[in-house]
Specification:
Number of helices: 4
Helix content: 55-70%
Strand content: under 5%
Structural class: mainly alpha
Number of strands: 0
Length: about 130
Amino acid sequence: MSVKTNKQLRQFGLVVGVGLAVVASISWYRGHTTVPYVLWSGAALLLLFGLVYPPALRPVEKGWMKFGYVLGWINTRIILTLLFALVVTPIGAVARLFRDPLDRSVDDGKATYWLPKKVAPVRPEVYERQF
């Protein structure tokens, strides 16, 4: 993690402070009594330090980023597991059931099982710009 500038810390304080204030307002609107005041207090502190003295937010931002990395690691495993289980596995199972990608069929009448290679003309431009 790189060292954050005062501008980045100020942006962090303002964005997270406003986000907490919005979440607190929604919680208050739904009728909760204690949670909105705790969130509003946190939002006020973040906004205050973000506007007045951004370097004070450095440990908060560092902890927030570590928390984000942990959540990202967990979410990646969950999403990739679901993708594999719900998309890749059924496609592989259907492909194995209904086709033979290696052409393993036995034909006694064939003289050879070799397949002729499709020859394409080679152009030097293809090697000059590979990507």
